[in-house]
Amino acid sequence: MRAGAMNRLSVEACDSLDGLKDGFIDDPDACDFDPQTVVGQTVDCGNSTTLKISAQTASIVRAIREGPTGADAKPLWVGTGHGTPFTGVLAFANTKCDSGVTNCTGVPFPMAVDWLKNFTRRDPSYDVTKMTLTDLEENYYLSRQQLGPIIAADDPDLSPFRGLNRKLLSWHGLVDECITMRGSRLYYDRVLQVDGNASDYFRHFEAPGVNHCNAAPGAFYPLRALDALTRWVEGGIAPDVLVGYKMPNATTITADSEASRPVCRYPQVLRYTGGDAGSYGSFGCVARGAKGTGTGANGGGSRRRDEL
Length: 308
Known about the structure:
By secondary structure, the chain is an alpha+beta fold. Helices cover 28% and strands 17% of the residues. The chain has helices at residues 2-14, 55-66, 110-120, 133-151, 159-163, 181-194, 225-235; strands at 42-44, 50-52, 95-99, 102-106, 168-173, 202-207, 210-211, 214-215, 220-221, 241-246, 260-264, 269-272, 283-286. The chain is globular, with a radius of gyration of 20 Å. Mean pLDDT is 86; it is low at 290-308.
């Protein structure tokens, strides 16, 4: 509950960075919200319930945003962007409380628990609640060592695909609480490192306010992305933007519909340019600014051990 309140505070702090306060962070890298700055603040949790943000909550939030680390505090993988929920069916910080908001314990994501028990450890009795940071790091590398050669799909060398003269289009919701958007972004960056002209056949897009295969109320979902890929393959029209539709009104592909908004091609970000906030034409895609694109917890751009 506290983590959910913390996410609301981060959205309130960074919502208007794109020029319009609409309940979403269009460029998480530009958000410099620090959870430590709201420790001790009282928040309204609804149902006449208030809570005070604790230092422990701030530490949990920071850890999720930065991503998992090993016992030496060095990063193992990327974290989540500002605005991504901490609680929900697929989220990372769910808890179960005995009474009220006290005596709470963590409720790990079931698929992650099953993965550790049945695939990584191959031991259904393995107790994930007793894992230390050293155990986490061991499980991370054990999983990669045992299962990576079988199911990994992270090879950035797409030259065989390019040689077939085909096209690849991907998109990721910026508030995906289950599979971090930073993973897809990292892969695309690696592909470009191998082939600087990869955008000729592979383009990646990021959708603000869209979580794991769903759009938050008021967000714009790239429902017709497959149509854009079809036009690229069959008509040679490479997409510079996708069209995001406000669900559940995505019944047409009219770009100037009041229920649509651009979904920008990475690394560009969405900006409100002025005019009717309900009009597609009031938004544009611009180059990402310098703020928040460097290294560290806020930008999420620090070199990860997985890249070495």
